[in-house]
Each structure stands twice: as structure tokens, then as C-alpha cells.
Specification:
heterodimer; A: alpha/beta; Rossmann fold; 6-stranded mixed sheet; 3-stranded antiparallel sheet; 7 helices; globular; B: mainly alpha; MetI-like fold; Sulfate ABC transporter permease (chain B); transmembrane helix (chain B)
């Protein structure tokens, strides 16, 4: 089966003399797969995401994204405050080359998809944190990319809002068949969302272990199955962090 | 509420595709709860009443102006200086009325305002691309960035003698001095505006595919707008004071009579009420343009961004 994303012996250092941030990372992600990159701060998980997004180039190895275009969502919603919610979505449509006449209707359709119907003309600052992240998701979807890269997109939200966005994201990515790479430092979040959890070790960043999450959707973050697997992952993460200190 | 809905209908309907078109089922608990959360979290803003605005925004400056006039009148009435050297506000008001009935005030203010506006617009046309290049091209920035900041610190009245030698007693001299005063401010404002853009906005623009000219037009310029507006405001202040310096020195019968020339006439006639009248008019016009043009513009931009 052909991969949507493949990394072959990828290394990254920011200066020739600096220690590598990522060393010899091999990762294949299948089309439609939801992979969570889990690790402590500074393990290079955001760097890995930037490599896949093409925002940075690897120092060695190959990053290929046969699936084509990638869309990115950041921790900060990164919406443009001078545009309305719909204006933000429309800018992505414009950059993609959607004709002007179709943009408004398409933006409204995407906002309805993230459950913000009728909010096309809302100002970004007039929306709640959860709503802003949903607009950001709609803007990312407007790029019509088959790969969605997410860098801790829900980290700044409260637990209740976050829980609902988990459900929204799962619903949308399953419906659209998106390939998702989701960076997080929250093991429960990773198990709640992912088909696969990839644990990154730090200094240098490398893949320490992987888990396939064989739980059916819908999942609940409070369920015993999610809690059990995330406890195992957290234990392993603890070993990695302790090992890095030596 | 969430506990009563363990099946997460949102996901299951999504999988079958109905919710993809954005048609959430009506009995959708998640959507209802979400809307409730959104409503709770959405910031609300109340408009202050007209009375509150009058009390908090209008009253303090009015009190300050009245106090200044009062103290001025008291000092003048105390005859510390002879009244021809320090006339009170009433004498200055009479000087203004005298000019008003002569019908010269409109022409004088109009001449200066016209020069100021044209000079300012020329400065915007030159300063904007200059600022953009300095902000975005590293080499240019290293080369002329410090010079631009230095020019901003140089009082533009220093350019008047040079400009007179280059252009004589002409409008060209006046415009040259305005440009040398205002262009650095406007360019620096844009540079500062670009510097203050959160890097996340530029990255977001890049991942959206808004690059090159499209990135400048749709991301860079709007993101830099608050800083740019601050630069324009300062540019106007510099243009206006440069204009006054130029008019004060560049007096000639061939040139139209502006506020600066009017002020110089007052000096030549040793007519202190006329001099003070000119100073007050210069102040009023300069502040008036700021209050009528730049303050509302800045406020509109900032409130639309929730700042």
C-alpha cells in the first residue's frame, strides 16, 4: 500500500555543529491514517511536523508526501484578526484558486461543517477560543489538502471545549478520509484520537516506540480502555524522559 | 449533559456522511451543548451611554482648556509684562475676529492645509514603498535603516536653508522640507508595523499559499496596518511642523499666504495678539486633523481587530 507520508532516515540539525534535533527517523503514514506524535517538550515533534509541512528542509534523509498538499493548524489559532471568520476561510480558497463567485458559498459550507453555521461575518475576536479553533479547522479544510498537520491545536482550550473538538475532529476526518498528523504531549488525547501513537524520545529526537490504537470510534477520553493504554504510554514516556537526564 | 450522551452522536452521524454537508441532526445534543458553551464563552461588549462618554471623554479636556485660558487671563491681568507683550486671551480673540471680518482666515488656513495635505500625500506615496523595501530586504535594511531612523530625529527645520539654496523661495522648497520631515516617519512606521507582526501570521500565510505579492497584499500589509497608521499619524505631525518651519522662513510675495507667513507678519508688525492668534490656529489645525482623521481611523482599525 502506498504511503501518504513517508520519512526515510530523516535527520535535522539547525546548524552544522549543533546536535541533531531529529536523528534517523523512519515513519510511514498510510492514507486516511490518524497518527499522533507524542513526546516531552523539546523532543523535536514540532520540527518533524514542519518538515512534513515543507516549512523546513531535512538535513539528511528524505521527506515525501505523495498525498500532495498539506494543511497546517497551529496551537495558536493563527487566524487573521483583520478578516472575519468567513474572510479567513475565503483567503485560503482564494490562495487555492477558487473563483471569486464560489468562495462565499464554499466558506459558508465549511463553517457549517465545523458547526459554525451563520458565523461567516463574525469578527475573530468576538468568537470563543473553541470557535476560533473551529474556524482555523475550516480554513485548513479550505485548502482541500488530503493531509492535515496539527501542532497541539487544542492545548490552549479548556477541557470541556477540547472534548467536543475531539469529537468534531474525529467526525470530520473520518468523513473526509483525511490523513492527520497530530502533535501532542497529552497521552490521553493521543489515544482518544489516533489510529497510531508514535512516541518520540528526545536528544536526539527519534522514534522510541509505537502503539496501534485498536479501539472503535466513538471513543471517550474517560473510558477504561483509553485510560489503560495512555497509562502504559505515560509510563514509557516517563522512562524516556528519565533516561534523557542521565 | 455530556454524560447523558455516551454514544457521541456527532461522530456516528459524521461517519455516515450526513453531517458533512453541515446539516447537523436537529436532536443533536453535542451541537446544542456546543452552542451553549460558545454562548457562554463569547465575549460581550456593552456600549457606554452618551452621558458616560460626555463625562469621561469630553469633560476632562474641556476643563483643561478652560483652566489654561483662565490662568492665561489672570497672568495677563496681573501685568507682569506690558499688555502689548502679553495680551490676554480676549485680546487674541479680538485679533482673530479682526482677521475673520477681513475674510483672510479661511484663505490662510486653506493655503497651509492644502500644502500640508499635498505634502503629506506625496510623503505617503514615497514613504510606503520605501518602508516596505526596508522592512523586507535585509540588505537595504542594514544599509539605510539606521539613516532613516536618524533622519527622523533630525529637526526638519534644519533642511530649510539647504532647500532655499536649492529651490529658492518657492513652493518646491516648502514641499522638499515637508517630504524630508514626513517620509522617514511614515517609512519607519511601516517598518515598525512589519516588525510587530506576530510570526505565526506570516507562517499561517505561507502554509495557506499566500506568498509573494499576494502575501504582501493579503497578509503583510493588513497585519502591519496598526503600526503603519501610527506612522502616518506621526508623519502628519512631522509634515505639519515641517510646513510651519518652512513657511515661517520662506516668506515671499510670490508665495501664497499660509499660517507660518501670517505668523511672521505678526512678528514684523510686533503685533503680539496676531502672533498668538497664529500660534493658536497652527495648534488647532494640527490637533484638529489628528482628532478628525487619524484618531477615528486608528480606533476603527483597532476595534475591528478586538484591540
Amino acid at each position: 500500500m502506498s504511503a501518504a507520508i513517508s520519512l526515510e532516515s530523516v535527520s535535522k540539525r539547525f546548524a552544522p555543529a549543533a546536535p541533531p534535533v531529529l536523528a534517523d527517523v523512519d515513519l510511514r503514514i498510510a492514507p486516511g491514517e490518524f497518527v499522533c506524535l507524542l513526546g516531552a517538550s523539546g523532543c523535536g515533534k514540532s520540527t518533524l511536523l514542519n518538515l512534513v509541512a515543507g516549512l523546513e528542509a531535512p538535513s539528511a534523509g528524505r521527506v515525501r508526501v505523495p498525498a500532495g498538499r498539506t494543511a497546517v493548524m497551529f496551537q495558536d489559532h493563527a487566524l487573521f484578526p483583520w478578516l472575519t471568520a468567513g474572510g479567513n476561510v475565503q483567503l485560503a480558497l482564494k490562495a487555492r484558486g477558487v473563483p471569486r463567485a464560489e468562495r462565499r458559498a464554499e466558506a459558508e459550507r465549511l463553517l457549517a461543517l465545523v458547526r459554525l453555521p451563520g458565523r461567516h461575518d463574525a469578527r475573530v475576536h468576538a468568537l470563543s477560543g473553541g470557535m476560533r479553533q473551529r474556524v482555523a479547522l475550516a480554513r485548513a479544510l479550505a485548502q482541500d489538502a488530503s493531509v492535515l498537520l496539527m501542532d497541539e491545536p487544542f492545548a490552549a482550550l479548556d477541557a470541556i471545549t477540547r472534548d467536543h473538538l475531539y469529537a468534531e475532529l474525529t467526525r470530520i476526518r473520518l468523513a473526509l478520509g483525511l490523513t492527520v498528523v497530530f502533535v501532542t504531549h497529552n497521552a490521553r488525547e493521543a489515544v482518544r484520537l489516533g489510529d497510531r501513537v508514535v512516541l518520540l524520545a528526545a536528544r536526539p529526537g527519534r522514534i522510541a516506540r509505537e502503539w496501534t490504537v485498536d479501539l472503535p470510534h466513538p471513543r471517550r477520553i474517560e473510558s477504561a480502555a483509553v485510560a489503560g493504554l495512555s497509562a502504559e504510554i505515560i509510563d514509557r514516556l516517563g522512562e524516556e524522559v528519565a533516561g534523557a537526564d542521565v | 449533559m455530556a454524560a447523558a450522551d455516551p454514544t457521541e452522536t456527532g461522530e456516528t452521524t459524521g461517519v455516515t456522511g450526513t453531517a458533512v454537508a453541515g446539516t447537523a441532526t436537529p436532536d443533536h445534543d453535542d451541537a446544542g451543548l456546543e452552542a451553549g458553551l460558545d454562548a457562554l464563552e463569547t465575549p460581550r461588549r456593552e456600549r457606554p451611554s452618551l452621558l458616560t462618554v460626555a463625562r469621561t471623554k469630553v469633560l476632562p479636556p474641556v476643563v483643561a482648556v478652560v483652566l489654561v485660558l483662565l490662568v492665561w487671563q489672570l497672568v495677563a491681568a496681573a501685568h507682569i509684562k506690558p499688555s502689548y507683550a502679553l495680551p490676554g486671551p480676549i485680546a487674541v480673540w479680538h485679533a482673530f475676529l479682526h482677521q475673520w471680518y477681513l475674510g483672510t482666515v479661511g484663505g490662510i488656513v486653506g493655503t497651509s492645509l492644502g500644502r500640508g495635505a499635498l505634502g503629506f500625500l506625496l510623503s505617503v506615496v514615497l514613504g510606503t514603498p520605501l518602508g516596505l523595501v526596508v522592512a523586507r530586504v535585509r540588505f537595504v535594511r542594514t544599509a539605510i535603516g539606521p539613516i532613516l531612523s536618524g533622519l527622523q530625529a533630525l529637526p526638519s527645520v534644519a533642511w530649510v536653508p539647504a532647500a532655499i539654496i536649492w529651490f529658492g523661495l518657492s513652493n518646491a522648497t516648502i514641499y522638499a522640507v515637508i517630504l524630508l520631515g514626513a517620509v522617514p516617519s511614515i517609512a519607519n512606521g511601516l517598518v515598525a508595523g512589519v516588525e510587530q507582526i506576530p510570526p505565526i501570521h506570516l507562517r499561517a500565510g505561507r502554509v495557506l499559499g499566500a506568498t509573494g505579492l499576494r502575501g504582501i497584499r493579503h497578509v503583510l500589509l493588513p497585519a502591519a496596518l496598526p503600526g503603519y497608521l501610527a506612522g502616518l499619524k506621526q508623519g502628519w505631525a512631522f509634515a505639519w511642523r515641517s510646513l510651519m518651519a518652512a513657511e515661517l522662513i520662506t516668506t515671499s510675495p510670490d508665495l501664497g499666504l499660509g499660517l507660518g507667513q501670517f505668523l511672521d507678519q505678526g512678528r514684523e508688525l510686533s503685533d503680539m495678539p496676531m502672533v498668538l492668534c497664529a500660534i493658536v490656529l497652527i495648534l488647532v489645525v494640527g490637533v484638529g486633523i489628528e482628532l478628525l482623521v487619524f484618531t477615528p481611523l486608528t480606533r476603527r482599525v483597532l476595534t475591528s481587530r478586538g484591540l
